[in-house]
Specification:
about 425 residues, globular, Growth Hormone, Chain: A, mainly alpha
């Protein structure tokens, strides 16, 4: 019987490096938007800034996918972790010297842009470091690492931010990225040098065309999946990203530590979802993925109900926190199943580009949604429950429409 041990040396080091790096990222991405929201007290500005920050992630996901297929993936991880540490140092010294809003926009755009370029390398390295039979488990572990960081980051960040402000969070993040980069230097990821072509822009264009034609001719169902994901990100994911901080801090008037608990519940849900996906790889059926989306729609509906005036504030907070846990648990199982199928059905030399394209295109409507929800929460604060209930209703419809698409994906069309 073939050895399918998953925790081999290099994969283990990737996992450890991800734990450290993503924790630094999570604590920073929790603190910076909260700092902006506290300083400006404007949900519309909060939504606009977070929307702007997502745009580079979409753009650089394409570039990151191309680079991941042509450059040693380890070198990409090392370089981006070191670069992230440097820009945090620059941000620290610029804080107070440059107007807050443009500084925050630039900083968040850089962070999300780096994340967009970074993740295709991680996702494309998994099939090179684990056996085919263990691919779903490998994806589950990487997702669990991400969600564990999202659990610890907000929980610790909420306490530190409430007690000491932003400075210790910046210091911790710098240390995390430096340690992660140093560790990643010693990882070996199989790599075969490819012709770089006539130039970076020509290379990007040609590689993306190659990826597009593969999807169009061999896997047109991928386009339908991307469409469903894009609509869901526009309608529901954006509502959660903007809505949870605004609902907890502004609508319910809870503390920074309480927001850390609510967002920590997202991380805990992702961790449990990763465990469930990793231990039931044979039971995950893509055809039933629409049920995951239905559950997420239901959690948004309950969040909306929790904001109604008849619901006590404390009960509303815990309903939002519990629903955050359920949402992330289910969405993590959904993401792992989608990524695993794409990895299984895509040639290795196209994997980075195809993964990046799916992530980027499905996320491209999310910034639009974030900006819209920022305005909605700003102008409808007294009846903010309407926003989440409306998002839930639309999401229910999208979930039902996705049923046939996931059935076709499972068949390998």
């Amino acid at each position: 019987m073939k050895n399918t041990q998953i925790f081999k040396r290099d994969f283990t080091m990737v996992v450890i490096g991800q734990i450290i790096s993503l924790f630094g990222n999570a604590i920073l991405r929790f603190a910076l938007p909260l700092y902006l929201l506290r300083e400006t007290d404007s949900s519309s500005l909060f939504g606009a800034v977070t929307a702007c920050s997502f745009i580079p992630m979409v753009i650089f996901s394409f570039l990151g996918g191309v680079i991941a297929d042509r450059v040693n993936k380890r070198n990409i991880m090392v370089a981006l972790d070191f670069f992230t540490a440097i820009i945090i140092v620059v941000f620290y010294f610029a804080l107070g010297q440059i107007p807050l809003v443009p500084l925050m926009i630039v900083m968040l755009m850089l962070l999300y842009g780096i994340s967009g370029a970074y993740q295709p390398s991680v996702q494309a390295s998994i099939p090179l470091l684990v056996d085919y039979e263990a691919l779903a488990k490998g994806n589950a572990i990487i997702n669990m690492v991400s969600t564990l960081s999202n659990l610890l980051g907000p929980a610790i960040g909420g306490v530190l931010f409430g007690a000491f402000g932003l400075t210790p969070i910046l210091v911790i993040s710098i240390v995390c990225f430096i340690i992660s980069a140093i560790m990643e230097i010693f990882i070996h990821i199989p790599y075969q040098k490819r012709d770089k072509g006539k130039g970076i822009f020509a290379t990007v264009r040609n590689d993306l065309i190659e990826s597009f034609y593969f999807v169009k001719r061999e896997k047109p169902i991928f386009l339908s999946v991307v469409g469903i994901l894009a609509i869901f990100n526009l309608v529901l994911s954006a509502a959660m990203i903007v809505g949870i901080p605004v609902m907890v801090v502004q609508v319910l008037g809870m503390s920074d530590a309480d927001l850390g608990i609510a967002q920590g519940a997202l991380g805990l849900g992702g961790l449990i979802g990763g465990l469930l996906a990793g231990t039931s790889t044979q039971k995950l059926k893509i055809r039933y993925n629409y049920i995951y989306l239905l559950i997420c729609s239901s959690t948004a509906l309950i969040m909306g109900i929790s904001l109604m005036s008849a619901i006590p504030t404390s009960i509303g907070f815990w309903l939002i926190t519990i629903m955050s846990f359920v949402t992330m648990c289910v969405s993590t199982m959904f993401t792992i199943s989608i990524f695993t199928v794409v990895q299984q059905q895509t040639p290795i030399h196209l994997l980075g580009k195809v993964m990046a394209t799916i992530i980027a295109v499905s996320s491209c409507f999310q910034p639009i949604g974030q900006a819209i929800y920022g305005e909605l929460f700003e102008n409808l604060e007294t009846i903010s429950w309407v926003i989440m209930v409306g998002a839930a209703i639309v999401s229910f419809g999208v979930s039902i429409l996705s049923k046939r698409i996931f059935y076709r994906l499972e068949k390998g069309e």
